[in-house]
Amino acid sequence: MKIVGVYSIKGGVGKTATAVNLAYLSAVAGRRTLIWDLDPQGAASYYFRVKPRVKGGGRALLSGRRELDDAIKGTDFERLDLLPADFSYRNLDLMLDAGKKPERQLERLLRPLRQDYDLLFLDCPPSISLASENIFRAADALLVPLVPSTLSARTLTQLTAFLDSDRVRRAPRVLPFFSMVDEERPLHGDTMARLAERHPELLRTVVPLAPEVERMGLHRMPLPAYAPAHRAADAYRDLWSELEAAVA
Amino acid sequence: MSPEPMDFQLPQGGDIEAVLERIRATLSCEVEPEATWRRRYLDSFDWLLYGVGAALEEQVAGTGQEPGQGQSRRLLWIDLAVDSADEAQVLDAEPGFADDLPPGALRERLAPVLGVRRLLPMAEVNTRAIRVRVLNDDAKTVARIHLEDNRLSDPVSPARLSARLRLLPVRGYLDEFAATARLLQEIARPVAEPGVLVLEALAAAGRRPGDYSSKLDYRLDPAQRADAATRFILLGLLDTIETNIDGTRRNLDSEFLHDLRVAVRRTRSALGQIKGVFHDAAVAHFKAEFAWVQQVTGPVRDLDVYLLDFPNLRACLPEGLRADLDALRDWLSAHYDDEQQRLVQALASPRFTTLLHDWRVFLEGPLQQAAPDGAALPIKALADQRIWRMFKRVRGEGRAIDAQSPAEELHELRKSCKKLRYLMEFFQSLYPDKSMRRLIKQTKVLLDNLGRFQDLAVQAEHLRETAERMRADNAADVGTLLAMGGLVSHMLEGQQRARREFADTFAQFDTKDNCKLFRRLFLDSSGEQARHQNRHSAGAESDAADAVHGAGQ
After folding, report:
1. Which of B39, B163, B464, B483 could be disulfide-bonded to B324 (CB atoms 3.0-4.6 Å)?
2. Would you indicate the residue range of the signal peptide (chain A) (predicted)?
3. Which CA distances in Å does B381 have to B228, B334, B368, B373, B384?
4. pTM
C-alpha cells in the first residue's frame, strides 16, 4: 500500500477536492483505494455521503479500543472506501501526544491496512503540527496544492525547509501542483512562471478554478463521476496520471 | 469485517424484470443503466483446461459499462473449484493459440496447459446485467444487488440459463445489508452455491467436458469373446478418426491430423497384431486402404513437425546463421497450403468416405458364423499370448543389436516395440494398473530413443532433398544452403548420440525385474487361467485356451 498525503499548510487551496477526485480516479483505475478524512470539518466524508462520525472518536482509534478496520465505510463506488472524519479530530495533536512515540502513531495505526488497499489518500487538516509530522512520517508522497500567489509560494518553502530539518527522519516525496488557477488573472500566470523556475519538482498539471468543482458539494460525489467531460475533470485525470507514475 | 455476498435463486422462469419491479417497490434504490455482453467459454478440442480444473471465459462488451473498465474484449481464467476469475487479460482479437496472446500472467499460465492446441469456443452465452444500489436516507449506497440474465447464444433456441441474483455488502453497513437480505428473501430463495455458469452453459449447449481424449481408455471384460473385444477397440479408433476429420480439414491445429494419423496407425497395428479373430481375406482390403490413408496424410504431418520445431531448429544454429533459415521456413510455409489442399481433397474423396463407411459396416455387423479359431477365445487369453510373443520378439531383436549392427535392425526393433506398446495400451484394463503403467512407460523410453535415431536420419535426408528442390526453384541462396547444411550436421550428430545411448536404454528395458514382470503378467497368468478353466469347465473355450497357451510357449 502506498500512502499519499494531500497536504497544505494553508487552507482553502482545493485540498479536499483533490483528495476526493484522485481517490475516485484511483478506484476507477482498478486500485483498491481508501481515503481517510482527517479534517474535523469532514468535507470529504460529506462528499461521499458518509456521516462524519467514528464511534468513540479519534481517541478510541488511537488507543486501539476501536479497530480502524471497523470504522471504514464503503462509498458509492466500487473499490473505494472511506475512513470518516470525526469532530474529535480537532484535538488530534493532544490525542497523538498521549501515546508512545507520538510522531509515529499514525504509521502504527495504518500498518494492519497494508494488505487491504493499494493506495491510501490522507485528506490532512491545514497546519504544521504533531498531526502533520505523523503524516510526513507515514506518507510515501505529499501532494501539495498551490494557489499561485506569493503567500502560498512561501508555505511551500516553509514545508520543504521543515521536511529537510532534523525533526523529520524519513521525508516523503513532495509533489506540488498548481490548484484553483484563474486563467483570467495575469498575476497567476506570472507567479506560476516564476515558481516553476524555482521549483522543478512542480507537477505539470494545472487544475483550473471552476465553479463546477464547487458543485461537488451539491452533487455530493467526485467531479469526474458527474461531469466527466468537464475540463477540470480532465485536469484531475492528468494529475492522477502524474501521481500514479510518481508512486508506482 | 464485511459479510460474505449472498446468492439467491430466482423463482421458476427466472424473469429478472419481475424481480426488479419487486425490488423497486420494496427498497429505496437506484437502478444503473443495464449492460450486456457476450461470454464465450473456450477450451482445446481435447479439454486440456477442463482437465486442470479451469475454464477460459472470453468477454466481449456489448452495451453499457460491464465488463472491466471500458475494455471491449478480455479473457478470464476461471478456477472451476471456486468459480472465480484469477487472471484477466485485455485482448484486441479473438484468442487462438497461447503464443498469440499478449504477454502476461494469463499467457504464462495457459501456455504450458494448452501446448500447440488452439482455443475453440465450446459454448456462448449472452449476458444481461442490472446493477442496483440500495440507498439510505442520504441517498448513500449501503448495499448492492447484481441481477444477471444469461441465455445460451443459439439462434434457434436461446435456452435460458439460471438467472442470478447476488446481494453484496458495502463495507461498514452491516445492519443495512441484513435488512436488505431479509427483504430479498421475500422475493427469492437464498442458495449456498449459485452453480458454476460455465458448466451450466456447456450442459445446455450439449457439450460434455472431457468427451474427447486421444488417450486409449478401453474397459474390457477378460471373458469377452476376442472378436467382440477387438471390434470394440477398432470402433473406438474409428470414432477417433471420424472425430478429427473436421478439425484436420479446417486445419484448426496440428493435433487433429496427428490424432487422426495415430488412430489410423493403431488400427493397422491392431489388424496386424490381434491375430486370428477375423478372416484374413475380410480385412486385407481394409489394411491396404488404411495404409493409403497413412500415406496421403504424411506430407502435411511432416511439414507440421518441421514448422512446430522450427524455433528449436533455428536455435541450434550459431546466431549468425539463423536469419539464413528464414528462406527455408518461407518455402515450407508456401508448400504447406498445396499439401493441405491435397490432404483436404483426399479426405473428401469417395475412396476415403467409402473406406470409413464400409469399415463401420464391417465392425458393427453381426459376428461371423464361420469365424477363425481365435474369434471365440476370451480376449484375456489372446492378449496374454500376443503381448508375451511381442515382448519376446522385442527382447530378442534388442539383444541381437551391438555397436556394429546396421540401422535397419534398429528400425525393425522400433516397429516391434511400437506394436508391443499398442498391444499393451489396447489391453491395459485387463491387467493390474500400476504394473501396466510401469511397463508402458519403460517401453516408451526405449521407443523415444529408437524414434530419435530414425526420425533424425529421415529428417536429415528430407532436408537434403528439400535443399535440392529449393536450389532447383532458385529459392535458396548460398547462405540458406549452408545453414541447412548446418542443420543436417546437427541432426546427424543427434542421431549418432541416440545410437550411442541405445545400449544403455535397452539395458534398462531388458532388466531381470522387467522380464519377470512381463512373464508374471502375460505368461504365468495365462497358464493359471488355462489350468483354472481346465478344472472348472469343459468345452471349446478351455480347449482353445490350452491351444493358445501351447502356442505361446
Report:
1. B483
2. none
3. 14, 52, 20, 13, 5
4. 0.76
